[in-house]
Amino acid sequence: MNPTLHAILVFLQTWWVELTSGVVIVAVVPLVAGYVVLVERKLMADMQARLGPMRVGPHGLLQPIADAVKLLIKEDIIPDEADRLIFWLAPVISMTAALTSMGAIAFGPSFQVARDINIGILFVLGVSSLGFLGIILGGWASNSHYSIMGALRSTAQLVSYETAGGLAIIAGLLLSGTLSISGIVAAQEKYHVWFIFLAPVAAFIYLVASIAETNRAPFDLPEAESELVAGYMTEYSGFRWALYFLGEYANMIVVGSIATTLFLGGWLRPFPNVHWLNWLDFLPALIIALIGVYSIYRAGKQPVMVQTGFMWAVALACFAVALIFAMPWFVGTLKFVIPGLNGAFWFLLKVSAYIYVFMWLRFTLPRYRFDQLMHLGWYILIPLAIVNVFAVGVAMLLESNGVNRWLALILTTLVTLVFAILLVRWHDRRTESASTASLAPDSYAG
Amino acid sequence: MLDSILFYFFGGVAVIGAALMVTRRNAIHSAVFLITTLLATAGIFLQLGAEFLFIAQIILYVGGIMVLFIFVIMLVRLDVALHHIRFRMKSLVVTIVIAVLGAEAGAIIYYARKLPGQGLFIQNMAPASNLTPNSEKLAQSLFTNYLLPFEIASVLLLVAMVGAVVMAKNKKRTEDS
Amino acid sequence: MQDDALQDNSTLLGADELILNMGPQHPSTHGVLRVKLKLDGERVRGTECVIGYLHRGVEKIAENRTYQQVAPYVDRMDYVAAISNGLGYCEAVEKLLNVEAPPRARVIRTILTELQRIASHLVWLGTHALDIGALTPLFYCMREREEILKIFEKYCGARLTTHAFRIGGLQYEAYDGFEKEVERFCLDFERRIQEYVDLLTGNSIWIGRTRNVGVLNAADCIALGASGPILRAAGVKWDLRKAQPYAAYDQYKFEIPVGTNGDTYDRYMVRIEEMRQSRLICLQAIEKIPEGAIMGKVGKVIKPPAGEVYHSIEAPKGILGYYIVSDASTQPYRVRIRPPSFINLQALDKMVRGHLVADVVAIIGTLDIVLGEVDR
Amino acid sequence: MADESKPPQESPKPENSGTAPAPPVAKTPVAPASPPTAKPVPPAPKPPAPVQVPLDNELTRRYRAKFGPAILDALEDRKQPYLVIAAAQLKDIALYSRDDEKFDLLEDFTAVDWPRREKRFDLIAILYSFSHNSRLRLKVGVAENERPASLVEVWPAANWLEREIFDMFGIEFSGHPDLKRILLPDGWQGYPLRKDYDILLQDSSWVRENLGIDSGQ
User: Which residues from chain B sit within 8 angstroms of residue A156, using beta carbons?
Assistant: First the structure.
């Protein structure tokens, strides 16, 4: 055989999983991101007493595709004064970072994209934070005041909140004792409890920090629409803009996955060790089948034939997926896929719930101001995260010296909470006096 | 074979990136090429199985330091600052530095050729996959053998941090008054 | 501008001032307002408003139209409160003619004007909340405003620029079920206000973004001519509806809400409370709409005796004044409109100095300007 | 007039709001006014003079005592009092109104163009007093090239209002901090609210240059 061909074949043989996964990520994540946007718009519409997208496809189900087509065929504008190389490079960096970091995420016991590298969680964190380079460079390259202010804001925000988020993750890692993603999930299985219950403060800090890192409301200052037009994206349009957007939503999925892995038990179903709850393993198939039934119920109520047909199609698709989930229970030879399928289901469910919290907060809360954001990060979250790391460490030390684990954790958590309350109190008093002090001369200056 | 290809790829990218970094006039462009170099170096670390080092490189250098670099470049408006700084004798300095570095590189290659098996291109290095997870090992040696240097470095960094805060505060106070 | 800023301050760190052009195309300048911000970092060191992008020369047009023809033009100034504009103009001309609108007309005018005040405040609340980043209140506000606009539409056929009133009274009788619809809206509205209040009033981010932001004390308000909710939020219990009642306001009981600090939060609270009070006025008014004619004794051709008159009303945004000079012809010799937004906008510079860019947006929002009225 | 303690004011509506036709008292000043007006063509030679009745009350007496000849006239039109004052004393009278008579709010400041008069423009300052709940108008005759004193130092609110007067009438105020056009573009020719500025007339060169069309009409 031709040696070159042989080498290629060997290469493919060893790397086919990674290659396919890579292709799948690049092909599927944009679609998923598009539909996350649709879900977000629909949820927002529901909370705001309106319908949301309804025109493209039944209930607007094809809207993401229409959006993608629109963005693709839009004119590609590069401002004259922009730095063309970096203007071109920045969105690519942003999206590449988000997609690459997905490589190390395990969507289930058998759905890990890359090999289970022993620093998996760090890889995800580190690579996804590279996306900020894209934001900063994009803001700078646009050569517009709004863009550069957005970029500066995002840098400051990243530096502040990555610290807090990292410290929160350290608390979780202390409990798991490993950086490997499957190791973390295994540790939670071993502990018989999700880490969110062992380190609630850390989970909360990570929630806040991850919202800030993904530039979502109420921390969406880098792209604060009402102040900076669109922040670092102001000068971008068409497909470049879409890349940023894609990166943002992929990042949401990434941080959701990290939080799920670290704090929400990864792909474990609720109470994985309680045997009388084993019927929960049927739940995925059941839920999907129920969605199918609901679609059939709704199909009769659609005003247009096409929509009825579409609803039927959705129902059939649901049944098919449900069947795939249910099949292994009846076909003995397929039994080995059960943990993988169910794991993926639970994992994605938890990620969706996490992203739902993001959206919910976005529709409800006003936006922080920049100084308030910085204060929250530096004066409250970071000290709290540091104390929390100590608290978790002390709890583990106590446990290894024979104190009941729960007692130790509850005690240390209480100490942390008291600290948090004192911190917030102190900060409130401080800002109160500062604002009255600084405002007086200013308001009379003019 | 793949290893070699990857190595040469990363090495090439690192070298080209470094060269471009030095030659760019625009500071941001330089920073971007420095990032390229750092990433390529990280790739080499990964290839060597030094996963922790790889990720430390990415998080610290690319994610942390470079972000701050760019931040500072944007804030300071280096292009404006450059007009104020006149590089005198710059060609002379550059020539000397290049000459010294070139001599060094030549010497290394020369001696590497002379001492087979120990030079630059060691073919029989241990395959990466055989290494045990090294983040634990790294931690072990950091906190046992190298505890003192590690602590000294941390204290140094802490001092630098406190110093920075103090300086920033002082500046603000003088501004206010 | 940009180059100047660069050259003036070639210092290395921090000290360079940035000129940021906010608008005329900007999501939160509420129209085509352009504000040049002089920034130090994110802190505002000074502003300059550039206005006039929407100037249509209403005052000049009015000199070339008959008195009746001017009325629709004034609707186009503050287009989110067209009825209030119309009321001010009609009453001013009535004063010039020395006639009075009949009681029934005055009560219906009051009801519609108060509904318009609610609608105007709703638009303000929604957009202001949106500026500060709260997405949802806007849609709730628009939902209620829609109900009000439906009432307008049923009454006069138009929703936005209504031209609802005529000089001397009304052209249209209240439609069947008018009282009932207004009542239903008012009864429902209390619960709706509670929804906005739940979303915003106690929200610590909202408080953080509005407390002590854009403070304008009473003395500054008066010196700068700022009126309406801005003045009341500074603690001045003054409202033209009480001070010099017009239309039918003297017949109804209502409170003048006042704030204490004169900051953005107080203005928010004042406007929310004003909506509640307007609702009460409407409820009182529909209880007893007097019977009778809706048009006063005004001829087909309006030819006021020579002279001049100034009449001002409490529009949702502040004092809306009309100064009309007649030369005894069918066309006004001069119509001067005192636009509350224009004069309130003057206070912007004082309010934003020392604040951050994000506060500029909040302060422009809290001034509740409508560029159609600023530029006329 | 009847009520000495309070300066004359717009009669509060409630008094005559109940009955539809205005009481005859209100009519009397109007009735004799109509005949002499004699329907002038738009740029009226002598328009509103006769409709006003002279005003003599506590307030005007105080003003007259303080400023004497600077108070050219004190009149009332439709129960709204106004003082016609000399341009030279404008700022002093404004200060006095604000500080002593407590007319603390400059509600509006505008102008009217009477092209046939010797002093072509009337500057109208509408003052409001919170403590007395009353209004007073100051009317100042200004000739074409006269530069009346700016009121910005008295009422900061006058800033933009004076700019607008400058923009629309071309009256320049001496001492204004930043007198430039406000509503119209900076390079605009002419002053639109002057009576000799026809509504169809516009700065066509500006329109052509900036909007790229021949005419806005």
Answer: 71
